[in-house]
Write a structure and sequence with these properties.
Low-confidence stretches: none
Order of helices and strands: HHHEEHHHHHHHHHHHHHHHHHH
Mean pLDDT: 89
Membrane topology: Multi-pass membrane protein
Keywords: Cell membrane, Membrane, NAD, Oxidoreductase, Quinone, Translocase, Transmembrane, Transmembrane helix, Transport, Ubiquinone
Number of domains: 2
Protein name: NADH-quinone oxidoreductase subunit N
Distance between the termini: 29 Å
GO molecular function, one term: quinone binding
EC number: 7.1.1.-
Number of strands: 2
Strand content: under 5%
Oligomer: single chain
Shape: globular
Length: 495
Amino acid sequence: MDIETLKSFNWSVMTPEFIILGVIALLTLLDLFLPKKQDRRILGWIGIAGVLAAIIAVASLLGTEATSILDDTFTLDAFGKAFKLILLVGAALVLFLAISYEAKEGLEDYRGEFYYLFLAALLGTMIMTSSGDLITLFIGLELLSIPSYILAGIKKHNRQSNESAMKYVINGGISTAITLFGMSYVYGLTGSTNLFEIATTISAISDGQQAYLLGLAFLMIFVGLSFKLAAAPFHMWAPDVYQGAPTPVTAFLSVISKTAGFVIVIRILIAVFYSAAPTGASGESILFKMHDYLAVIAAVTMIVGNVIALKQSNIKRMFAYSSIAHAGYILVALTTLSTNMVYSIWFYLLAYMLMNLGAFAVIQVVSGQSGSTKIADFAGLYRRSPVLAVLMGILLVSLAGFPGTAGFIGKLNIFVGAFAGTPHYVLASIMIATTVVSYFYYFGVMTQMFFRPAADDRKLNMPFGIIVVLLVAVVGSVLFGIMPNIALDFLNNLK
């Protein structure tokens, strides 16, 4: 590819990625040359400024027609724009959490590394949202995964953090190998890594043996990516990693990483297998033929996540299983393949980002003072900080899916979608039953906050970053619960 060809590309569509890349380079150099006694929080503020600039860049591209460059390996379409906004807003909130993270928990020595490793992982997620090629998808996935392994164990003198990082690396390596093996089958059958070319090629495949191999590839890719989603029975790493990692890292893994996991699932499974290999008299694609497997994983994920969460005494482990359960709800939307599937998933991830990051902000404040992450530490929170307790209550109600919150609208969209086309009565029933089960552990935390005596009467310190996260999270959860059409109209108007 010569220089003139490179100049001919519309590089402006990659402006958000270039901004994040530039900030990563800047933070790396600043962290290297700043005096050791210099507070590294300044790097966090620069990171937040960079992320806000990237949000503005994405907003400026909202009216741009869908554009592909570099032989369709990078595509800026409505899908990419919508999910990049969730990722960037979530990343900004995580950075506010990181700036407010207390040094006594052991992150101060590595705070500089945290910021640019986190932004590198964010860059990987942004590449994934716009990838039109298996190679760039995999590069984005690894750019997300490798910094995540380091971040999980960034408190290198903490044994629990070391354990979480080791488990994450081992499970992440296995999932990557399985995913790559499945991708290699797709490439071997089609001779291309471009998603558009793959879709065109496999739509013409009618040979039964090749269709069998494509089905095998589908299962391997989905199983490999299920590790990233923390979907049962591939969830075993999540509780230990969530508990051992610093709270901002846990928030990042539960929201940004999970969102990116669903992005790559939609990109590959829908773009490749939706039109793949009509076989037999029914002419159904492989994705439709395999939807029973998706339904089983969705059901098991909802049941395992909600039931095991009931027995947790550590709030970060409880939220790990809650995160697993929410992955199951989103998998219901993916299984049903309804006409509004992408909107349902996007809205649910938006709501989940707001309510989960807000909840982790409260967890960070309470655990920062108590020195532990036990649910019992929330006892009497209403007496110590009434405002904080009320805000946490709103977020828990949204997570539980009560009317008037974004969590309710998200669940309602998925539930209604389960009856579009071919009804999925069993999945819808399991979704309702497990949602009811979730009330017990969410309201268990509320019982501690409002009806248990406080073991510690000290007032809680509310750093500026925590206040920002809580305001955005609570206002967004209530706003999208009362006026969900704002999000729907926004998504419908994207080009």
